[in-house]
Amino acid sequence: YCVDEYSKQILREMNEKIITMSLVHKKLYESDDLSSLNLNTYLQELTYLLHGSIVSNYPNISINYAGEDINVVFDTVIPLGLTINELVSNSVKHAFLKDQIGEIRIELQIGDEKEIQITYSDNGVGLPDNFSSPKDHNLGLSIITSLIKDQLLGSISIQSDKGFVCKIFIPEEVYFSRV
User: Fold this and answer.
1) 119 close to 165: Cβ distance less than 8 angstroms
2) Strands 61-67 and 102-110
């Protein structure tokens, strides 16, 4: 049977989301502590998997990851993983011109207020000049905003002068161990 390109793309995106969520379960099974996961280790492996599944078709694009070891409750990890997945997918689809050397950077750290800070950036074309709000223009950014604000009670800021920068802040009371 013949499957059109749009259907193939939808199936690839669904597969990437399944990989993102199944990695959490894999990490839980490997862990001695079933209540929390090391977010740094998870994001390192997720970045590697996303590079293999999404970015491998684009040899001019690289992903660089740097992070601090942060243990979080496992229910924090899936929304963050889906967020990173969506950001990488959006960058690959929209950020880079045909032969542009593209770089995606992901940084994880603890902020001064003990909040999780994730900085995602790419050196692509940035957002359109008429961009005003994630909810107005892009379903992917709308999903990201919902995951961060509604599920993780965090905040998000988006900048787009030289490329794209998304800063995510998750308050300590959301990710610390509650057991």
Assistant:
1) yes
2) parallel
